[in-house]
Hints:
By secondary structure, the chain is of the alpha+beta class. 31% of the residues lie in helices and 23% in strands. The strands form seven sheets. A seven-stranded mixed beta sheet has the order 3-5-1-12-9-10-11, with helices on both faces. Strands 7-15-14-13-8 form a five-stranded mixed beta sheet. It has a four-stranded mixed beta sheet with strand order 18-26-27-28, with helices on both faces.
Amino acid sequence: xxxxxxxxxxxxxxxxxxxxxxxxxxxxxxxxxxxxxxxxxxxxxxxxxxxxxxxxxxxxxxxxxxxxxxxxxxxxxxxxxxxxxxxxxxxxxxxxxxxxxxxxxxxxxxxxxxxxxxxxxxxxxxxxxxxxxxxxxxxxxxxxxxxxxxxxxxxxxxxxxxxxxxxxxxxxxxxxxxxxxxxxxxxxxxxxxxxxxxxxxxxxxxxxxxxxxxxxxxxxxxxxxxxxxxxxxxxxxxxxxxxxxxxxxxxxxxxxxxxxxxxxxxxxxxxxxxxxxxxxxxxxxxxxxxxxxxxxxxxxxxxxxxxxxxxxxxxxxxxxxxxxxxxxxxxxxxxxxxxxxxxxxxxxxxxxxxxxxxxxxxxxxxxxxxxxxxxxxxxxxxxxxxxxxxxxxxxxxxxxxxxxxxxxxxxxxxxxxxxxxxxxxxxxxxxxxxxxxxxxxxxxxxxxxxxxxxxxxxxxxxxxxxxxxxxxxxxxxxxxxxxxxxxxxxxxxxxxxxxxxxxxxxxxxxxxxxxxxxxxxxxxxxxxxxxxxxxxxxxxxxxxxxxxxxxxxxxxxxxxxxxxxxxxxxxxxxxxxxxxxxxxxxxxxxxxxxxxxxxxxxxxxxxxxxxxxxxxxxxxxxxxxxxxxxxxxxxxxxxxxxxxxxxxxxxxxxxxxxxxxxxxxxxxxxxxxxxxxxxxxxxxxxxxxxxxxxxxxxxxxxxxxxxxxxxxxxxxxxxxxxxxxxxxxxxxxxxxxxxxxxxxxxxxxxxxxxxxxxxxxxxxxxxxxxxxxxxxxxxxxxxxxxxxxxx
Length: 791
């Protein structure tokens, strides 16, 4: 054999300076995606592929009296038409919610047990009732229009507070007053006692507006069935193939896991929406089995506004109790969350549990209570949306703090400083039940003030006034409790072609996983960065994992890679000892080299993997360096930060311009600062959308008003300001890399900061509250009403 010289170790060390943890390495996939060479679900084609179209209800609520498919079946190219009764006969299971949530009286969350196609009743405009499969998409669509659905209309309700009142239209006989979950957290008696003793209580009513997800790539799926193996295969965009396969196989198709093959390629955005199964997937899987040929379904934007899950949607009353010095005594939140028509995925959690987990944020808030009813209405169903309750909770808290400061005559910055959790108190037992393991909240705050040049805001405000503009500023902190503890997969495979493959259960739908995961592996094993590949989208390979969600990816997959790398090193030491005829205890590993201690004899890890593949090893020597490892439960992390926004308002038009934006964040160890900045920019952009323009609306009959981009506004590039980004890390102690989630922080930091900045600008007119979205019309109207009061 030929031992490698120490120069190889030096080359590896130099490479890590460019590609290791902490370096701003460009994304591996950008060249492919920017050039339009990516492959998304609708790009896949199979021989003899047929096409599906879904027949949907045009009523928000009604009884199905009959469905006539005869005319559709007789049309050219039609291969089949199916209704809910056909799927019931096939024995498929319902869509349910697996969360172990309980109401205040101890009863479990009510299930709606949604079927893929409705058989008795429709509950929102867009509810699927039948589907057609034909030789071409045009034929399927034409035939779907020929399906006659007889629905007897029923009264509908879209507002969650109205739906929870006696006498409101009932969506389900077994769910009184449409309340699926009456959630409570906290010691109500202690909280009430704190409020009674308070020197001041601030109260706010807040509407958390409903938003549509509108990912760049609509949902799509391509299904096939092998009658010989009795195996379903579905190509579909997801946020993780392992967990979605289990749900689809076990709960819906009622088959063993191995009878379902789930594939995900490139995904054009999700934000929580694609991390669950949908009725359309069951429809085409059924058709593929019956017809013996592949079936594709691709959504269109107009129907995705109806059929995709929505986000946010709460009516909240919140209160903050303070002592005479402005110290927080307790906070409480009550109100309603809009579940829509069915409960699937994790829908109740963002509306209830996650509010309590994140409400106390970075502040010493001794007590809290959360009382939220999650209510069913005749609207599209709810799901996770970027942040999933974390931005909302921080929004409620920061709105309360600014209002309390104004009411008590305390400077807003001073009030926050008085209540920050101090570094000397870490680890800190928050009233949410969480234990913060790290953080320097005052330090983050101070750095944000410095970078944003907050000290000179008054000069900028004076200059704006000269131009007839109202200028406002807001400084707001946030903290997120990231995904709940789950295990994660870390497989490392040394391929025959000299590449190294990472296989893990998270899934990249825009985050750029391939690069930071390769940086971690390169850092751990000294494997050349450009030889590392990532596999996340094949359920035959990814047998375990909970997908990407809750800002868990770098922490979960990073920990899995680190632990798997240690196992690779253990195997490598045994193998290197055999090949170099040394004792295993004398083998050291660094910078990709296994070295006999005290000598210059070494072997590179890539050469070692090749030697193991090419030669037969004794029984006590590993025959490869491959590792298939699953972690134990991975703890949540607590990313936090402080954002500063400055806005200008034209009082004549109500138009709001974001003129300065600063975000300083604690994401612990930052593996790739370039990607982290991109994630933050994207989150802030979605916060801007919700704050100023996005809002899903329904009329009195439950008909959607915002069904296209003609009615539903999204931010454009010109709406997004240049952002100053700062970093003030306190590495997490709960994972080996010290990372904290960053993917949803932009939403958590931006909502409150943007709205409070607008309110600061409007405060000189006596305006103290306004609900999102702050469209020019709403802002202009608030200004006119304020002027009228003065007049």
